[in-house]
Amino acid sequence: MSAPIPDPSVPAIDVQDLHKYFGENQVLRGIDFHVDAGSVVCVIGPSGSGKSTLLRCVNRLEEPTSGKIFVEGVEVTDPDVNLDELRSRIGMVFQSFNLFPHLTVLNNLTIAQQKVKKRSKDEAVEVARRTLEKVGLAHREDAYPAHLSGGQQQRIAIARALSMSPDLMLFDEPTSALDPELVGDVLDVMRNLASEGMTMMVVTHEMGFAREVGDNLVFMDGGVIVEEGDPAEVLGNPQHERTQSFLSKVL
């Protein structure tokens, strides 16, 4: 299943002057940035810097307080936008796997295809098996989530998102809940997606992945973008004192 052919003239994600408050607490303070179609943008920063909130605003899992977000030229922040249609084009992978525990792997992958995409059962199963093959878990289609390792569950969660044939993928710290030895398999799946041209926005602590796979690296702190640029450049020669301080602790 190859990634959709992006229109290079329209940013896949375009965020303009985005602000987000939770009560009195301002979490995002005028964020401006974009993700080009077919590129991988990695977002790093300390806990509480607004990374996950920014990601969740892109598909309106969080309601922005002000500002505009466009996905493939469609304004996500327009009150009249069809959220179901929008979300069917955006795959989302969370820190916790959010699989249905009472359903087999195969059923986890087919249920939304049938309900949201209106695919027939046969078509949904065919797509699910293709995506399970892609993440290296075709042999576990009859298993229940409780019988899988955390790394396998996360790969199933990625396969479930891919089964919806999204135009772009959002990853919210997809490896942070995993034992260290299970991280590699998940990152390999994400590397393969990137090599196929899938547009990806990845909130991550995996600096090696960001350096190797990212086209752009965004460092956030205190609800603002402090520094962004080529990942090797930002990680190897950070210009801002705050970036230097953060990287000195994590690299």
* H-E order: EEEHEEHEHHHEHEHEEHH
Point out poorly predicted stretches: none
- Helix/strand class: alpha/beta
Overall pLDDT confidence: 94
Q: Count of helices?
A: 9
What profile does the largest beta sheet have? 6 strands, mixed
- Name the quaternary structure: single chain
DSSP strand tally: 10
What value does the Rg take, in angstroms?
A: 18 Å
Taken as a percent bin, the fraction of beta residues is 15-25%
End-to-end Cα distance, whole Å, is 35 Å
The helicity comes to: 25-40%
Report on the architecture of this protein.
The chain contains 9 helices and 10 strands. The model has no long low-confidence stretch (mean pLDDT 94). It is an alpha/beta fold and 251 residues long. The chain has helices at residues 51-58, 83-88, 105-115, 121-134, 150-162, 180-195, 207-213, 231-236, 241-250; strands at residues 13-22, 25-35, 40-44, 66-71, 74-75, 90-93, 168-172, 199-203, 216-221, 224-229. Strand 9 (216-221) and strand 10 (224-229) form a beta hairpin. The longest helix is centred in the C-terminal third of the chain and has 16 residues, at 180-195.
